[in-house]
Amino acid sequence: MKAVVFERVGEMAIRDVGTPSPGPEEVLMSVEAAGICGTDKHIFSGKYTARYPLIPGHEYAGRVTALGAGVTDLAVGDLISVDPNITCGRCHYCQHGKTHLCLNLEALGVTRAGGFAELSLVPAKQAYRLPDTVSAEEGALIEPLACAIHGLHMGRVEAGDTVVILGGGTMGGLLMQLARNAGAARVLVAEPIEGRRKTLAELGADVVMNPLTDDVLATIHKLDPEGADVVYEAAGRPDTAQQAIGLARKGGTVVFFGCVEPEHDIKVNPAMMNDRELTICGSFNNPFTHKAAVDLVSSGRIRVEPFVSRRFALDEFPEAFDYFGAPDSYKLMIVPGSG
User: Fold this and answer.
1) What does each C-alpha distance from 306 to 73, 202, 208 come to in angstroms?
2) 3 state DSSP class of 54
3) For range 2-25, the mean pLDDT
4) What's the number of CA atoms in the CB half-sphere (13 Å) around residue 93?
5) By C-alpha distance, which of 302, 304, 297, 290 is closest to 85?
6) Among candidates 83, 6, 66, which has minimal Cα distance to 30?
7) 10 Å Cβ neighbour count for 11?
8) In the prediction, which pLDDT does 329 show?
């Protein structure tokens, strides 16, 4: 089969890697859609720990083509979405219900072959059957939505809250919809790209700001003089991470959801933290949220399809990879069967 391979840091190829066969408790799937993520860029540049050579891609969906021994709850032809994160179940964190912090975490597309390929081997327990109302492209966006659901949990959004999201890309747009569904009285999003601001408004953001021209803090204070109950940094930038702390009210929560590159630090004043009793936390992966993401998409409560901006064939992966992050793009989808 044909696949994208990260041979080593900074080097990729599209080549034949042979056709895998499912072992016990595994399924073989034909990949129909796989989304490019910022983590894929970090893996390629060596800023995220991976195992090379690697077939990347951890946001994907497709059809089951073969079953390994012992698989009884899936059938050939089922459309499935993949939860890429494989935990050991034995370490301290797994035993305390924090499986996403597993000391022996493996991940499809990171430490095992992933979805930028014609076929993919998936542990059956990581495969979630999709209803007929959900497309393969929507299925590929289940994984990022599952991560956003965990972010919602970490922010503890409650009915009546004022929620601010810095960064209106795919993840910011998903967080915005989740916060509205959770009962937030108002959700404000700061996003510099005009096309994204339009999409966010169409999806229900109460206020969409351009941080390059609008005073974000003043805009928040016009609606809620005390500041936001919950602030999400979803841009992955050190300047917005710094800004987020100043936007929260006393007793508020700041969630660092975006992936700021590890070489960057920000300043936090302990006296201010004590006086305002702020909670600052991160949000990592998708513990126990993949099924909830499937249900939210299938019910129509969360829309993911507006975030697919372009599609590329597998052979066009280098072009798509270079295009990722362009101002006019949201999620770029690799469609192996096209082209």
Assistant:
1) 31, 10, 17
2) strand
3) 96
4) 11
5) 290
6) 66
7) 11
8) 86
Q: Alpha helices, DSSP H only, in the chain?
A: 38-45, 92-95, 136-140, 142-155, 170-181, 194-202, 216-223, 238-245, 270-276, 290-299, 317-323
Query: SS3 string of 85-127?
Result: EECCCCCHHHHCCCHHHCCCCEEECCCECCCCECEEEEEHHHE
Other CB atoms within 10 Å distance of the CB of residue 176: 27
* Type of residue numbered 72: T
Task: Provide the residue count of the chain.
Answer: 339
Q: Report the first-to-last Cα separation within the chain, whole angstroms.
A: 15
Q: List active site positions.
A: 39, 42
| Cβ burial, residue 170 (10 Å; 0-12/13-18/19+) | buried
User: Which domains, ranges and CATH numbers included, belong to the chain?
Assistant: 2-141+304-334 (3.90.180.10), 148-282 (3.40.50.720)
User: Six-digit token pair at 127?
Assistant: 């495969």
Question: Is the entire prediction scored with pTM above 0.70?
Answer: yes
pLDDT digit string, tens, across residues 23-49: 999 999 999 999 999 999 999 999 888
Q: Which residues pair with 117 in a beta bridge?
A: 3
